[in-house]
Write a structure and sequence with these properties.
By secondary structure, the chain is α+β, with helices and mostly antiparallel strands. The chain has 2 domains: 152 residues, Jelly Rolls, CATH 2.60.120; 90 residues, Arc Repressor Mutant, subunit A (Orthogonal Bundle). The protein contains 9 helices and 7 strands, in the order E-E-E-E-E-E-H-E-H-H-H-H-H-H-H-H. A hairpin with a 5-residue loop joins strand 3 and strand 4. Helix 2 packs antiparallel against helix 3 and helix 5 packs across helix 6. The radius of gyration is 19 Å and the shape is globular.
């Protein structure tokens, strides 16, 4: 298996987190590279070879088309891949998809949209270019150029939502809806409406995801007795509150933070790989 991680150019980093190239010549079911998909982000997937099916816990599963945008996944989901596999995956932040495509984000939370049906031919041109690459690193310039073109072609105003998302990240999700609306001088209904229209998620749910990921990052290196004791240092008021989120986002109870081979989309990324997108 060959799995490569590349970074976008600085001008794209407010919206694009990372590029991934995955190639595996094995036949049949293939284990997903650990933590490829993370809770709370959106992804554009370009499949040149293989088949990928997603099974969210809360609704029927689906097979991804060759070129798709997927997410946000707000519940535990499992990705099953049949090889041989060859695909390029672009990890976007919470508002990146809206900036590049201007889609109604609420319409496909926990689901997908087929890029072949998008009115902008740029994405199918990108798919064709990716099929012609000779080396994995060739995807960097192709993706950088395409996303730069998308930014120039269409301007989808982010309505301060990018600033709200960054504010929630900076405060590790420990922000109430009232505090968020006050910080940005918006009524709570207006704040919730524009936040959901751009990200596809209510601000309360996004804050909950950030809070959960922050807590899990601080606990995942500890043993059972340690993480029970250290929950008091996170934003969770009780173990029951944390277990409720863990069950919803991971699909299992946190009896022990053992490293697992389960390909759960809601799993945390490997420490050190997750980046908070910031303007350069």
């Amino acid at each position: 298996m060959n799995f490569y991680i590349y970074h976008p150019e600085d001008a794209l980093r407010p919206f694009v987190k990372q590029y991934y190239y995955w190639e595996d010549n094995s036949s049949g079911l293939i284990q997903l590279p650990q933590h490829l998909f993370a809770l709370g982000d959106q992804y554009m997937v370009f499949i040149q070879q293989g088949e990928a099916a997603v099974k969210p816990v809360n609704h029927a599963g689906f097979t991804l088309p060759q070129n798709a945008v997927i997410g946000h996944f707000t519940c535990a989901c499992h990705l099953q891949v049949k090889g041989p596999v060859k695909m390029v995956i672009v990890q976007l932040n919470a508002y990146g998809c809206y900036r590049f495509l201007g889609m109604n984000m609420q319409s496909f939370t926990n689901y997908y949209r087929n890029l072949a049906a998008n009115e902008n031919p740029l994405w199918m041109q990108l798919s064709q270019q990716l099929e012609q690459i000779q080396q994995p690193a060739d995807i960097i310039s192709i993706l950088n150029n395409t996303y730069q073109q998308a930014m120039v072609q269409h301007h989808h105003p982010l309505k301060q939502v990018n600033e709200m998302v960054d504010y929630l990240l900076a405060n590790h999700g420990n922000v109430s809806p009232e505090e968020l609306s006050h910080a940005f001088q918006l009524s709570r209904p207006t704040m919730e409406r524009i936040f959901t229209s751009v990200t596809g998620l209510p601000p309360q749910l996004y804050a909950r995801m950030v809070r959960y990921k922050t807590a899990l990052r601080s606990l995942q290196q500890l043993n059972l007795s340690q993480w029970q004791a250290n929950l008091a240092k996170t934003a969770y008021y009780s173990q029951a509150m944390f277990i409720k989120d863990y069950l919803e986002f991971n699909g299992e109870t946190p009896s022990y933070f053992a490293r697992s081979g389960a390909a759960t989309i809601a799993h945390m990324p490997v420490p050190g790989l997750q980046q908070v997108a910031v303007a350069s």
